[in-house]
Amino acid sequence: MLATWLQALVSGLAIGGVYALIALSFSITFTTTKTLNFSQGEFIGVGAFLGVAVLYLLSGQDEGAALAPGASAGFNYPLAAIAVGAAVGVIGILLFITAVRPFAGKPGMSWVMSTIGFGIILQSIGLAIWGPAPVNLPSPFGDDVIRIAGAGVRPQEILVLVVAIVLMIGLDLLLRRTRMGKAMRAVANNPSVAALMGINVSAVMIGAFALSSALAGIGGLLVAPIASASIFMGLGIALKAFSGAIVGGLDNPRGCIFGGFALGLLEASVALWQAQWREIVIFLLIILVLAIRPQGLFGARTLDKV
Amino acid sequence: MRSPHQPTRRATLAGAATLLSAPFIFRSAHAAEDIKLGFNGDLSASPSAQSGRAAVVGIQAAMADLAREGGVLGRPLTLTIRDDLSQPPKSIQNMSDLIDNEKVVAVFGPTNSGNALAWKHIPNQKHIPVMGCIGSATDITKGTGGDNYMFRVGSVDRIQVVTLMGYAKKNPRSGKIGFLTETTGYGQGGLKDLQEVAQAQGLTPAANEKFNVNDTDMTSQLSKLKSAGVETALVWAQGTPIGQLMRSMDKIGYFPTVLTSWAADNLSFMNAAGPQLAEKPIFLRTVSETRSPRQQALFDRVRPNIDADSAFSFAVHGYDGTMLLARAIQQAGSTDGAKLREALENLNGSYEGFAKTYDHPFSRTQHDALGAADQRWTCWRDGKLAAYSDDIVASLKPEDFKG
Amino acid sequence: MRHVLAACIIAALAAGLVAVTANEFYLRILFSACVYLLCALGMNVLLGYAGQKSLGQAGLFGAGAYSVALLTTSLDMNPWLALVLAVAISAVFGVLIAAPSLRVRGPALAMVTLAFGIVVEKVVTEASDVFGGAMGIYAIKPLTIGGVPLSMAQWVWLGIALCLGIHLLLRNLLTGRFGRAFLSLQADEIAAGAVGVPVLRFKVLAFVIAAATCGLAGALVAQQNQYINSDFITFNLSIFILLVVLFGGSGSLVGPLLGAVTLTLLSAVLARWSWIERFANGALLLFALYAMPKGLAGVLSGVFGKIAGPKAAAEIRPPADVPLPTRPAIVVDGPLLQADDVCKSYGGVRPAHNIGARLMPGDIHALIGPNGAGKSTLINMLSGVVRADAGRIAFLGADLKHATMHAICHRGIARTFQNLRLFRELSVLDNVLLGQHARMSNGFLSSLFGLPRARREEARARQRAGAILDFLGLSHLAEAPAGSLAYGLQRRVELARALATEPRLLLLDEPAAGLNPQETAELGDLLLRVRAQGITILLVEHHMDLVMRISDHVIVLDYGEKISEGTPALVQSDPRVMAAYLGTDVEEMAPASSHAVAGLA
To answer: For all residues of chain B together, what is the average pLDDT?
Structure first.
């Protein structure tokens, strides 16, 4: 029984790490631009496939066969992560320019629809290039189960958790300690005042979208060895990460991280009871939380100035 | 594996090109001449799309062969293809497009069983035979009162379940059986079959758990099976989730005998599970991995156009289905739907196909050409599909297949 | 009437087309167009008018579809009765989705509706014992006439008839009191409440209308096809419904028709190259918003319509000396409004502390004090925008402590806002008509069916709005979008809107802010004329000359406390007032107004 609970804890933390990372990526654009990318799921899928493509290139393998287990070994995987981060970041900039900037700050939240539209386009291009079938992406640390007190865990799951935590601590420091972070928070607070202070608001917003998208891409690369790379893999992850972010409070990066982990653990514990009711329980709970605290658990209550 | 059959491939491509332009250019000119067949199934949207594409390749190969023999009733065959993206509303619209608009005489498909259930009343009302070659849900070919126009040359969940359950019953290890199914139409259709067959064979499952098609961690479900003492797990799901299931078994170190749906033959299963874990489950296919020279020749011919070795069986179903349909048209002497159904249900002579030799494959009540005797035990060995055999398989007799 | 005729002609043409079409495929496409049109008609009310984005419409489609499925199979109900019940059940689901949506806004609202759609999708997938899961429910009873199931052509006729009927009903609703109220929600919920629109009730109503039409569409699909499974209910469907509305032209009456017909035809044409269809939908979603924010309807009206751009005339016409519409006079014994010991604090800030005030009927009261004295907070508490922490506010003897904004408006208190909260996209006339909202008595049904009562009320409201515009000299600007006017005119329109609620007490939050000296003087005359109509006024103002000229009674606040009150002359000579303005915070006072110092000195 203990092993079962421990197993659930481990599973919950691993998937929660991914949720937290993507939830943070939502928070980054929301705090700076008051918008976010509703097609983050497609970015995750594209990130995973780009990772597969880079690994094929680095390991010099023929496209015909599945990637060999050693393809991710050594520096290949970190290099792939950098390449994916950069490439998806560029797609994020494209997203900002075409689908967000024309609508940001205007009433009506048209950016919700335009980012969904961008995602549909990205997905259909991805389908045309890579097809609908899942593709294998080996983990850099092999695939052997590690046993901790009866619970099994794969190296990749530990890697996901570690990388997610490291990235999140790094970003937290970046946001709170550096000039760039201060600029981002200033833009979040009041773009016109930030502009008066000599901050290049447009560049900060572009940077936020690039960073957010890069996180999604890297998230995809991290999850791919666990879930197989697929163009559809990101939808569920992004949705739950979004839920985590909303519940934690979109304008509070640390709240988002908490929300992500909480959702992962919740999911794992509901699965102990009835796995197929997981989504229903989670989303009903989210509706309930928002009905009671519309700003999320840790979000700041916004007051309408009259 | 470069194809020695380049002309065929080119012909296929040319055929496809003609098909795309046909509705605009040749429609009126050829309408009286051609025998138009249709395909309606997923070719691009879901992971099973590769099965749909393989079936089309098989159908087109058969049509090419028929064309060499001068067509059917002296008329050439054409195939009109519609992709339903796995969406039921789209699939329904396509069916109407093919039958009402394109005036095809018969339809192949669909890829996903749920879509067949969504539109099967249309061909039944319009008297247009449908030849299934991919979707394996038992209910597809089940009659609903009145004439039944749904036929199938392909795997049938019920038949697989009956065969697997026979194995489970004889398995000396199987003190208790448990079900693990995916919450899609495919998985839940299979679960229904599993429950009914288990009852018919006097077995009671000790556990019955479900998982989502995108799940990556099924440890909680497996823990329940483990604590219920299940030693034979019957799994109904698509390739990738079965692979994830094997990985989760590895995590908690629990390996019952695993009998799965034939989706485990999909390359996506191998990719997800990895070569070692992929060797655990046993499943049934309609085409054996030890191919006869004749099968090998077809394999070599179509392989360049299909996405994976394992999708070959769909090409075989498509090929055999087309040939049976052609023989029925020949026998009926007409393309009239009702006559075609008559002919299919009373097909004369025997036809040596690639899955088996068909001898009176359909009857009024039996619309599935492949039965329990046509199942081939299969497993993965060294990253390739292989025929499976053990003492239990050898000892199975027809009377073990109840339900 | 021209619109009704045109709609009937289009429907008749479509019905005629059905009669001559033998090809069932074409009929099916027409049927799909009808189904999506039904979804879009309701969605347009929710999205285009009330401005609420719902990403969970598939859930409501599912509610309708599964209702007929279960009612006709498990309960063996008559299919027509089941259809009606299914719409009712979907409407109930509309309330369910609206309830949690009332408090949340922005991305969280999107999340709530999205989550609702997913929950429905998952429930019908997982609870397969009831809903059949992905295997679905067979043998749903189709609609029948005399026991015979409808033919394909009859289905399309039914679809066309339903679309026409619902379109005309919704048009009745949307072109009058209810349509304006929905639009006011989209523009500014606080202003909507202040003019007497019950915001929550109208939000729920918009959700319910969208739910009912989506449910109807779902029920029709299930009955026509006699089968439904969980694969029908997807997020893509929710997105497609939104796309139909946005592409057609959200907030336009013809938008849903244009969107549904164009996109259904596009989908049918692209069926041979289905992967392009998905791409095209994505591209449309992205670029339609960008290139044609008002959708096809906007493009068409740009091409065919007159170049509508009423020149915003800068001057105010001389006001006409007409009486304002007012409530029947009553004799008030004592104060009209009395506030006692009212307190409010935000964390450490305390903008109101034990404030008391008595507003006597027929007087102009002025509320003055340095910046941050708590003047706006008091106005906000009196009008129900914020709740007082403690104390009592009685209007005509009734306690207002727990009254909502719209209820306060109904009782006869109107207000304007310091930072102008006009419905900028709406015309001046519509703004003023929204002020009449609470004074109109036509309910949902009489508006929906365009009953004589609704027409009578609308005519009366227009006539009264006309009188108010005349009174203020704004009649020539009635059709101009309020947001296009010069600042001073916008202030005056807001005053007109407040007067249209026929208040007994008018609260004005810095009505002269941003006005030039001449406009300020004109405003003074105007307020005196308003007082002459029997309306009591409380105004917050920095322009001391204005205050001193027109006020009967002045209340002075400083740091959330009342430091003085009385006649202008009395207050002017109060040393505490001098200290508050000059002694403690000269720098802050300086930019406020030089008039103030002049007036006080």
So the answer is: 86
d(CA A225, CA B185): 27
Cβ contacts of B219 on chain A, cutoff 8 Å: 4, 7-8, 11, 152
Q: How many residues does chain A have?
A: 306
The last residue of a domain, from among C203, C237, C271: C237
Nearest CB among C24, C26, C227 relative to B118 is that of C227
Distance CA B80, CA B103 (A): 10
Residue numbers in B near A226 (CB within 8 A): 216
In-domain check, residue B276 = yes
Statement to judge: residues B54 and B178 lie in one domain:
no
Q: How many CB atoms lie within 10 A of CB B176?
A: 18
Rg (CA), chain C: 28
Containing C398, the helix (H) or strand (E) segment is strand C398-399
In percent, the amount of chain C with pLDDT more than 70 equals 95
The string of pLDDT tens digits covering residues B353-364 is: 999 999 999 999
How many angstroms separate the CA of residue C287 from the nearest CA in chain A? 8
Structural domain includes residue B114:
yes
Judge whether B188 is closer than 8 Å to chain C, CB to CB.
yes
**Domain edges within chain A:** 21-233
Residue B188 and residue C23: Cβ atoms within 8 Å?
Answer: no
Average pLDDT over residues B200-229: 89
With an 8 Å Cβ cutoff, is A104 touching chain B? no
Q: Residue C534 half-sphere exposure, CB side, CA atoms within 13 Å? A: 14
Q: What is the ipTM of this complex?
A: 0.90
For residue A304, the chain C residues in CB contact (below 8 A) are 190
Residue of A nearest to C121 (CA): A280
Instruction: Please name the chains neighbouring A, where neighbouring means 3+ C-beta pairs under 8 angstroms.
Output: B, C
- Based on the domain organization, do B106 and B245 belong to the same domain? no
Minimum-distance CB partner of A121 among C53, C108, C286: C286
Query: Which two structure tokens, joined as six digits, stand for C187?
Result: 């523009």
Domain that holds residue C199: 2-237
Q: Which residue has the tokens 């052997």?
A: A144
Residue B1 lies inside a defined structural domain of this protein? no
CA–CA dist B282, B262 (Å, integer): 9
What is the domain-level CATH number for residue B58? Answer: 3.40.50.2300
Q: Taking CB atoms and an 8 Å limit, are B44 and A132 in contact across chains?
A: yes
A79: which residues sit within 8 A by CB, 6+ positions away? Answer: A54, A58
CB-CB: which of C51, C104, C118 is closest to A283? C118
Q: Are residues C342 and C211 part of one domain?
A: no
> Cβ contact (<8 Å) for A290 and C106?
no
Split into its structural domains, chain B has a count of: 2
User: Is the four-CA dihedral C390, C395, C396, C402 of positive or negative sign?
Assistant: negative
Pairing of strands C390-395, C337-346: antiparallel
The answer to whether residue C493 sits within a structural domain is: yes
Q: State the pTM of this model.
A: 0.90
Domain boundary among C237, C261, C286: C237
Residues from chain B contacting residue C231 (CB–CB below 8 Å): 86-88, 114-115, 118, 185
Closest C-alpha to A188, from A253, A143, A135, A235: A253
Domain that holds residue B175: 158-285+376-400
C211: in domain: yes
Chain C residues in contact with B188 by the CB 8 A cut-off are 128, 133-135
Residues of A in contact with C263 (CB under 8 A): none
Q: Within this chain, do residues B70 and B183 fall inside the same structural domain, yes or no?
A: no
What burial class does residue B28 get, using C-beta atoms within 10 Å of its C-beta: 0-12 exposed, 13-18 middle, 19+ buried?
A: exposed
Residues B269 and B311 in one domain: no
pLDDT in tens, B299-332: 999 999 998 888 899 999 999 999 999 999 999 9
pLDDT tens for residues B253-305? Answer: 899 999 999 889 888 888 888 888 999 999 999 888 888 999 999 999 999 99
- Sign, CA dihedral C477-C478-C484-C488, equals positive
